[in-house]
Amino acid sequence: MRCSRLVLQRWNALYRRSVNTWSAVGAAFNVQHQRSEHLQKNVGLFRVSELSGPAGFQMAQHQALREAEFLVHKACTHPPGAVTVETFDQLSDSLCRVADLADFIKVAHPDAAFREAAERTCVDIGTVVEKLNTNVDLCQSLKNLLENEARSKAVALNVKLLDLYHEFLSGSQLPNAIDKRLLPEHIRHCFSIDGNRVQIGGLHADSPNELVREAAYKIFLYPNASLLLCLDELLACRHELATLVGYESFAHRALKGTMAKTPETVMKFLKLLTEKLSDRTSRDFKMMKEMKKQTHSTNPEVMPWDHAYLSSAIRTEKFNIDPSIYSPYFSLGACMEGLNRLFTQLLGVSFQTEQAKMGELWSEDVRKLDCHFTIRGGRLREDGIYQVPVVVLMLSLPPPNGKTPCLLTPSMVENLFHEMGHAMHSILSSCEPVCTTLSDWRESLVSRLCESKRVCSAADTQLQAWQLRFSHLVGYGAKYYSYLMSRAVASMVWRQCFLEDPFSRVMGERYRREMLAHGGSKEPMLMVQGMLQKTPSIEDFVDALVLDLDANFKCPV
Question: Does the active-site annotation cover 419?
Answer without folding.
Answer: yes
